[in-house]
Design a protein that fits this description.
Number of strands: 0
Number of domains: 1
Strand content: under 5%
Largest sheet: none
Structural class: mainly alpha
Radius of gyration: 17 Å
Length: 63
C-alpha cells in the first residue's frame, strides 16, 4: 500500500505505552508510528485467526 493510500489517525496513549514504544524506537531506529502500525496489523491478524483456532485444533486431532 502506498503512502498516498494510508490514512492518518491520531490516538492518545498512556505514558507507559508511549515509553514502551519510545524505547523500542530508540533501540531499533524504527519510527514509533511504524512500530504502532505493525502492532495494530498484528493484532488484526490475530483477531482474524482466533475464531478459527478451535476448528484448526479439531482438524489436527482428526489426522
Amino acid at each position: 500500500m502506498g503512502q498516498d493510500e494510508m490514512k492518518r489517525v491520531n490516538i492518545r496513549v498512556s505514558p507507559e505505552v508511549h515509553e514502551w514504544f519510545k524505547i523500542r524506537s530508540d533501540k531499533t531506529g524504527i519510527p514509533m508510528s511504524s512500530l504502532m502500525y505493525l502492532a495494530l496489523e498484528q493484532y488484526i491478524q490475530q483477531q482474524m485467526v482466533l475464531p478459527h483456532i478451535a476448528d484448526m485444533v479439531n482438524e489436527l486431532k482428526d489426522k
